[in-house]
Amino acid sequence: MTDALQAKLKTLPHEPGVYFHKDKTGEIIYVGKAAKLSNRVRQYFQKSRTRDPKTEALVAEIHDTDWMVVDSEIEALFLEAEMIRRYMPRYNILLRDDKSLVYIRVDYDNDYPTVSTTRRPLDDGAKYFGPYLSAISVRAALKSLRRVFPYATKRMPNQKRATLYYHLGLDPGLEEGKTTLEAYRANLRRLMAVIEGRRKSIEHDIEKDMQRAAKEQDFELAAKLRNQFFSLQGLTKQVIFSDKEFLDISKDHALTELVNLLSLPKFPARIEGYDISHMQGTDVYEWRER
Q: Which of 65-79, 135-149, 207-221, 276-290 shows the lowest per-residue confidence on average (mean pLDDT)?
């Protein structure tokens, strides 16, 4: 680590955000998110930490690091995905496990719009956001967002009454006309804007609508918008991934379990396998005896 980078790391903020590791040419080679940038980024340079060979290769190439501060872990989660799509850093792309990627699916144009997660985006007319590296973090984020922007996750056949989720404030209640389709879609547009990183703009819009409703003496709507406004601001306090996020970019859980099982001093650089298939359980033994 250079002296310049060492001095720069001392200025890392304690807020959540997204960081960018760069090589000597200034190319972004890895993008990551953090609940606390100061803690997360410095972990890469702690010699006492046990790291797998893939992470060691990344750390060896880091020449500089930049970061962007955001207001919440939710925003860091969504911004990380956007920055990976924009810059396509080779350590994010080449070392990711496609089986772990997840997308947010919003079936906006349907007559009964739903919001869900999927690992396989389809050409079905729905709007997809992602991919994201952690399904757990995405589902936790959507759980928090659903309290602000109620949405349906699926349509039940022959459902004529509002579900329990409506009474919990988590569903629009289209079945009983509790919300019009137009109003529901407007709500989904704001949800998608937050996913795209435009939370401040949506807060401003909700605040304007709240003031307009109060001026028109529509106090019920004004109170509803006020609650939504404060709930949206409260997202900054939600814990989505915190500092429990894995450091190793390979995110190879099986490899970690193997190291613990065999009490290995460090991660293996190479694992070899040999085919010992046999016929009826005897041919391998007889061949070895010859």
A: 276-290
Q: Which helix (H) or strand (E) holds 6?
A: helix 3-9
Summary count for the chain: helices (H), strands (E): 12, 6
Torsion 33-38-40-45 (CA) sign: positive
| Domain 1-95+210-290 sits in CATH 3.40.1440.10 | yes
For 35-120, where are the E strands, in sequence order? Answer: 64-69, 102-106, 115-118
Tens digit of each residue's pLDDT (9 = 90 or more) over 198-229: 888 999 999 999 999 999 899 988 998 898 88
* Among 122, 117, 96, 100, residue whose Cα is nearest residue 248: 96
Domain-wise residue ranges, the chain: 1-95+210-290, 97-197
Share of the chain above pLDDT 90, in %: 39
Starting at the earlier edge strand, list the strands of the sheet with 127-132. 115-118, 102-106, 127-132
What span, in angstroms and rounded, lies between the C-alpha atoms of 81 and 79?
5
* Cβ contact 102:166 at 8 Å: no
